[in-house]
DNA sequence: GTGACGATAATCT
DNA sequence: GATTATCGTCACA
């Protein structure tokens, strides 16, 4: 499968957030290939978006003003990492937060990383909750601050390759979660969920 | 099944 | 010193 080219990311941030649904996130960890299809994203823009780190240009947010297709990883709430992909042309800020993936390969590596021990709670939670949150998928895939700045358009330790198309009928669009305040930008529909037919209630 | 709440540290003002 | 793009656990139904 081909890796997504930089031009894929050098577009409007909201467009990229939608287009990333169904694409494959791949992490090579200790020789193992861990992968999953992207199932949930959120767009974060620039000066028009108070919820975005790039609302202002600071040392931390500078990466969002840089080359598209680069990983932006940050640490939050004292315990979690979140993975983003930089979007838009250089000089124009933007990034997409990867909020969830549908795991494909390397489950046996992900489970212990997430504290899913064999024999634990028998009969319950068949991998539910393994990679369905931004902090959770970073834990499962071993993504931390070291990955900040990685080029996701090159097939190295972390990259994104072509996955499968996702129909509009299977996409749910909602306001972003976890952002607080009452600015007008916060209510905009910049969260995208891939909801295959037959799926149950929305996560969180 | 849902909803509340505290942990905990980098980053910015 | 305030803020925060989350998670796990607990109570309750």
Can you put this structure into words, describing what you see?
This protein has 204 residues and is of the alpha+beta class. 13% of the residues lie in helices and 27% in strands. It has helices spanning 6-9, 13-19, 107-113, 134-141; strands at residues 24-29, 32-44, 71-76, 80-86, 95-105, 158-161, 171-174, 191-194. Strands 1, 2, 3, 4, 5, 6, 7 and 8 form an 8-stranded antiparallel sheet that branches. A hairpin with an 8-residue loop joins strand 4 (80-86) and strand 5 (95-105). The chain is globular, with a radius of gyration of 16 Å. The protein binds a DNA duplex (13 and 13 nucleotides) through strand 3, strand 4 and helix 4.
Highlighted features:
globular; 8-stranded antiparallel beta sheet; DNA-binding; 204 residues; alpha+beta
The total count of strands amounts to 8
Give a short account of the largest sheet. Answer: 8 strands, antiparallel
Helix run count? 4
Approximate shape: globular
Note the run of SSEs as H and E: HHEEEEEHHEEE
Note poorly predicted spans: none
Helix content: 10-25%
Query: Which value, in Å, is the CA radius of gyration?
Result: 16 Å
Assembly type of the chains comes to single chain
Mean pLDDT over all positions? 93
Instruction: Give the terminus-to-terminus CA distance.
Output: 32 Å
Structure in a nutshell:
The protein is α+β, with helices and mostly antiparallel strands and 204 residues long.
Task: Summarize the topology.
Elements: H1 6-9, H2 13-19, E1 24-29, E2 32-44, E3 71-76, E4 80-86, E5 95-105, H3 107-113, H4 134-141, E6 158-161, E7 171-174, E8 191-194
Antiparallel strand pairs: 1-2, 1-6, 2-5, 2-8, 3-4, 4-5, 7-8
The protein binds a DNA duplex (13 and 13 nucleotides) through residues 42, 44, 51-53, 56, 58-60, 74-80, 82, 84, 97, 99, 133-136, 139, 176-180, 201, 204.
């Amino acid at each position: 499968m081909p890796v997504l080219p930089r031009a894929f990311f050098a577009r409007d941030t909201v467009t990229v957030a939608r287009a990333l649904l169904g694409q494959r996130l791949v992490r090579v960890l200790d020789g193992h290939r861990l992968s999953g299809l992207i199932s949930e994203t959120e767009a974060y823009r620039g000066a028009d978006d108070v919820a975005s780190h790039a609302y202002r240009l600071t040392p931390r947010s500078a990466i969002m003003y840089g080359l598209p297709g680069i990983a932006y990883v940050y640490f939050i709430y004292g315990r979690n990492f979140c993975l983003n992909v930089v979007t838009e042309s250089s000089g124009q800020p933007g990034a997409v937060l990867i909020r969830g993936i549908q795991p494909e390969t390397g489950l046996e590596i992900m489970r212990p990383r997430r504290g899913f021990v064999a024999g634990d709670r028998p009969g319950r939670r068949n991998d539910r909750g393994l990679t369905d949150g931004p902090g959770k998928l970073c834990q499962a895939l071993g993504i931390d601050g070291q990955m900040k700045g990685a080029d996701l358009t090159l097939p190295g330790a972390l990259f994104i390759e072509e996955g499968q198309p996702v129909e509009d009928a299977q996409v749910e669009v909602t306001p972003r979660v976890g952002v607080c305040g009452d600015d007008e930008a916060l209510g905009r529909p910049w969260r995208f969920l891939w909801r295959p037919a037959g799926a149950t209630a929305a996560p969180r």
